[in-house]
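Lines hold sequence, tokenised fold; shown next:
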Amino acid sequence: MMRRGSIISALLAGLLCAPAALANEPVAPLSISDNQRFLEAGGKPFFWMGDTAWLLLSRLNREETEHYLATRQAQGFNVVQVMILHTAQMESRNGSPALVDGDPGRPYTTPGADPAKQGEYDYWDHLDWVVERAAAHGMYLAMVPAWGDIADQRALNFENASVYGRFLAQRYGDKSNVIWLNGGDTRAENRTKVWEELGTTIKCIAPDQLMTFHPIGRTASSWQYHEAPWLDFNMFQSGHRSYAQEGPHARAEDNWRYVAEDWARAPIKPTIDGEPSYENIPHGLHEENQPRWQAEDARRYAWWAVMAGAFGHTYGENNVMQMYVVGAPTANFEADTRWDKALLAPGALQMNHLRALIEAYPMLERVPDQSLIVNNGTRYDRVLASRGERYAFAYSYTGAPFTVALGRIAGDMLRARWYSPRDGGWRDIGAIDNSGTHRFDPPGATAPGNDWVLVLDNTEDPS
């Protein structure tokens, strides 16, 4: 029988709220850039290319976890979003519970950590190993301490939030590849004191680890917590509903609107779409007989957000986020493909093209600039644009012709090219004068999913 671990020593050690010392890890700690818009890793620009693997800790064993991490690393992902507690009854794959009697203030720990010994390898030992293996793959773990339902049901409350936060921060506060996602698909205005206590406690002990708040669909962390001392960057969930499922004035699929709002806030903080519509999930999640979001939709969400000024993007795939296995009674949202096969969904294979383009240019100087686009369209016809000092990008989801106002970047002449978000290929347009306006017609017929990025470069010697 497993012994219930005591947390008394952890409580005593945490009373002084001593910051954890950084250990030597194969990934550099993240920080906010000097201009407060982007992230850096070890002082170098960092583009967040995230994947959603919410139930990885409870559904996968070591071998499967290693396969997941190696696959996503090879595909260009560098951040993985996971839940530590999905429910108060959370268990690891070997059946070890995370908590004693479902109480976040009483983590269930056992002596030793040998997975070969019966009853020794507990839930937290497994999380230790996952953090370590993610670091070995050069990946960051963005961890949700507790899903929102746990607070709504009062299992996580004001009395035990600081105890649980202290346990987490003292155990993982020295890990350079850990990021905290406070909250968890929940309304920011509900259980505010609980989330404030949890966030403040973790941040007090682990001040150098970045933290945000993961809100419910079609809301943003900035609406409630923008000025919270523990919130380093904003996160919004543009969610899974289509234009047809929302009112005429709702943001719906226009995730770029959240970015624009956050860019206008003070103090300045970076922002990211932490949960757009997942590939292969039905429109609206719970509504029957709805079409599923496809790879082109996943691309559109990613490119729109980043062109609008997001510091990165998180992708999600329905079967992967829940680690679906055929016949599993826990399946949600009409999952239909085994998770390891779904790792190869087209959208997942195409996310790296976004990262590749952004990293090929000076990242920290990039700003959104919709003045580049003349007479812009709405919804799927909208072109999202951003620029640096010597380059500009304009993303068209439908491949419809559009007109660009020139003269916004340096140089008399510009090189113009098309970049494909589908395969990373290039098509030359030629040299153009950097003045007046110019109409560009992307390759192919106008249609949703025939997406292209116009890339304008100033190739002149800046000296």
User: Anything to note?
Assistant: The mean pLDDT is 93. The chain has two domains: 8-359, 369-457. Residues 8-359 form a domain with the TIM Barrel fold (CATH 3.20.20.80).
